[in-house]
Amino acid sequence: MTNDLRIPGPTPCPDGVLESMANPMINHRGPEFAELIERVTENAKLVLNTKKDIFFFTSSGTGSLEAAVVNTLSPGDKVLSLITGFFGERFAKIAELYGAEVERIEFPLGKGADPDAIRNRLNADPAFKAVLVTHNDTSTGIANHLPEIAKVVKQEFGLLLLVDAISSAACLPIYTDTWNCDVVATASQKGFMSPPGISLMTFSEQAWESYHKSTMPKFYFDVKQALNFLEKGQTPWTPCLSVLFALDTAVTQILAEGVEEVFRRHERLGEQTRSGVLELGLELFPDARYASNAITAVNVPGNIDGESLVETLRVEHNMIIGGGQGSLKGKIIRIGHMGYCFEEDIDRCLKALSVAIDAS
Ligand SMILES: *Cc1c(COP(=O)(O)O)cnc(C)c1O
User: Is 116 exposed, middle or buried (0-12, 13-18, 19+ CB in 10 A)?
Assistant: First the structure.
């Protein structure tokens, strides 16, 4: 029995991507690997709209968040962390754990970060070095208005901008260089429609300047090591080859569809999901201005328990969706439409949701 996997990651993988995982192992210090890593690196740059460095790590997405922090910051550095949900808190915690002085600015759940509030906070203290932002906060179904945030952080203050793009890359438009993002951190198992196991991040010149001053401890995720080895067509440590094979196929498929077309498809999926949910008489959780085109969060009607609705969908319809996290547990459901997802997948999901709601 196959399931419809409509959680916000891991996401379904195309057959060809899964088949790539069955390729035999190669020498990760040999010429085939050099070709592979070079191709995946160049192709991933096209997806993230960057000409800057890109590095791959064997880890889930959180590894790339840790890499973003330890390679650019030093203990005592003052960091502004934009909290728009669960994942912003994770990013903040990593920085804090490594000794950064983290100031949080919390926005109401369901809303994005307000650029004016960011400006005010940054104006209040010239010591800020960096701003941490979650592009797409998967926990609340919002997409932050990254270009507006970047404008304040980069153009007005020239600070480092570190972006958690784990659930937005290859779904929502990201123009890493045009928007001046210093680090865009993401992973294989969401928009990149590959299995979990590889994370990646972009690294700007300003990020490199910060690297040279950075005193946070780093070993596995040290970008200088990654750069030295990449110049030889290698990674410092044995990479998860099977997932890299998969990612290679997936990125090729994304480029064949066209990066802009992938963004447009997600826009259509977002609109389809939102209007379908409203037609069922349900309400969206987030403020419409920030509703994400990668995931839709929906308020569960007061007379229904969200956790049992998720369970009914799984048991009766083989439809696997996300529930609410933390204070939103039981109160919202979340429908992922990131990566390998098309109109008919959302039709099926909405139909199952309609039946499950009627039966509740
Ligand atoms: C999925 C997700 C993560 C998850 O990280 P993993 O380490 O890959 O589990 C982090 N941030 C955001 C915004 C996410 O959506």
Answer: exposed
pTM: 0.98
Q: Please give the DSSP secondary-structure letter assigned to residue 291.
A: B
Q: Is the CB of 64 under 6 A from ligand 1?
A: no
Residue position matching structure tokens 């003052």: 78
3-class DSSP assignment, residue 119: helix
The predicted-structure confidence for 116-174, as pLDDT tens digits, reads as follows 999 999 999 999 999 999 999 999 999 999 999 999 999 999 999 999 999 999 999 99
Question: Residues 98, 73: contact at Cβ < 8 Å?
Answer: yes
Neighbour-count burial for 316-354, b at 16+ CB within 10 Å, e otherwise = ebebebbbbeeebebbbbbbbbbbbbeeebbeebbebbb
Instruction: Evaluate: CB of 130 within 6 angstroms of ligand 1.
Output: no
Does any ligand 1 atom lie closer than 6 A to the CB of residue 44?
no
Nearest to 202 by CA among 238, 175, 232: 175
Which residues are within 8 A (CB) of 17 and not within 5 positions of it... i.e. 6 or more apart? 193, 194, 246, 249, 250, 253
Span from the CA of 143 to the centroid of ligand 1 (angstroms): 14
